[in-house]
Amino acid sequence: MKNLFYLFLASLLVSFSCAEDNTASKDQSILENPKTSISVPMAGNAYSSKHLEENQTITDNGIENWTNASEFFTVYFKISKPGTFQFTVEESVEVFEKSELEFSIDNESRKVQFTASKKAITIGSWKINKEGYVALKIKGISKTGNQFPSINRITISSADYDAKISFVPNNEGNFYHWGRRGPSVHLNYQVPENINAKWYYNELTVPKDEDKIGSYFMANGFGEGYFGIQVNSASERRVLFSVWSPFQTDDPKSIPESHKIKMLKKGENVHTGEFGNEGSGGQSYLKYNWKAGTTYKFLLQGFPQGNNTTIYTAYFYAPELQKWLLIASFNRPETNTYLKRFHSFLENFIPEQGDLSRKVLFDNQWVCDDKDNWTEINTARFTTDNTGAKEYRMDFAGGLDNTSFFLKNGGFFNDLTIPKTNFTRPLANKKPEINFATLP
């Protein structure tokens, strides 16, 4: 009987030793001579679950001033093949008394104890079985002080992975801001060069649930400005039309009078003024509660006046009102051109919203020349901005969605579109029925 008892006891010990321990040890050794080792700054790659809180806990220093246990963070990076990765919180961590955090990837978690020590702490290792974006979640379990640890950077290292890892590496060029906003994406419509394009026409639909706060769905872009719709807050949406000044500056107050955009007329309830930061010029917007799932029409006029100025006028068709609305008409000095560089784009202008995906459809593009001849445009070239070109963010796509062009960005999806690819949609042969003489 004694022998049976000892055999039973030994089997228990073996079973306990084989059980997985999801609690990471501070003493777990850091990989020596790894094939890959990168330092990921939280400031450019982490997102809070409290997207639009006034007091943001992600700053240029990383995660800090974290007090709310219901708030959690997600850090994103992209791998190009499977591998096993070790994660270490770097020495810059600031700890207030004692706390416990949980780190998880694909619901496999490690719990880590933090004390006032500023030593680097190894979280643990995960085997990741497929390429693409990886989401590392950080949750607060408990704390004895007022705050959870402040985390500046996390090191990701691997003994078997020898390929590229995509993420925002630093703040050169203000890329903590641009990287967290996510990549902007564009469709550049191929308009025949021999056309004096006096009018651009486009139809835009934001699919349901794709109208995230901070999105700008731009329909009628041209060489000197842009025209589209925005989601500015939970309660405000706008139709926005802007024209850049020929004087290049980010400060509208520095533009000489001879180079300022002149407002000629505007529609009812339209606000007009100046804008800056990304070039400067004249801006107009109408607060309008447009709806996801509804198609809106955009009409832009632009033609030279013969005195080295060009007039640009934007009209928005509101199906809810069943009429065209005048947004604004601007005169641009030092300019002698018809419309050129017809394009659309999609961007997110709130960095805290960069982990959310958004999508927009464009259809039935036309141009009308100075003799009132309409030409359908059905080929577009997909491009992305510098954030995508540097591969800091690779969640971008565009091209064809059935018979429409589409753009998509944000949310760390994996089905990207190769930039500089051309797409051609089927001809719709639905010429816009517009009486120019009756426009407001």
Description:
This protein is mostly beta strands and 440 residues long. It is built from four helices and 30 strands. It starts with a helix and ends in a 16-residue tail after the last strand. The chain folds into two domains: 22-167, Jelly Rolls (Sandwich), CATH 2.60.120.260; 180-438, no CATH class. It is elongated, with a radius of gyration of 27 Å. Strands 19-20-17-16-15-24-13-27-30 form a nine-stranded antiparallel sheet. Strands 14, 18, 21, 22, 23, 25, 26, 28 and 29 form a nine-stranded antiparallel sheet that branches. Strands 2, 5, 7, 8, 10 and 12 form a six-stranded antiparallel sheet that branches. The longest helix has 17 residues, at 2-18.
In summary, what is this structure?
The chain is mainly beta. It has 4 helices and 30 strands.
List the helices and strands and how they pair.
Elements: H1 2-18, E1 36-41, H2 42-45, E2 46-48, E3 58-59, E4 62-63, E5 72-79, E6 83-89, E7 99-105, E8 108-114, E9 121-128, E10 132-143, E11 153-158, E12 165-166, H3 175-181, E13 185-189, E14 197-205, E15 215-221, E16 225-231, E17 237-244, E18 262-266, E19 270-275, E20 281-287, E21 295-304, E22 309-318, E23 323-333, E24 343-348, E25 358-369, E26 374-377, E27 379-384, H4 386-389, E28 396-401, E29 404-409, E30 421-424
Antiparallel strand pairs: 1-11, 2-5, 3-4, 5-10, 5-12, 6-9, 6-11, 7-8, 7-10, 13-24, 13-27, 14-21, 14-25, 15-16, 15-24, 16-17, 17-20, 18-23, 19-20, 21-22, 22-23, 25-26, 25-29, 27-30, 28-29
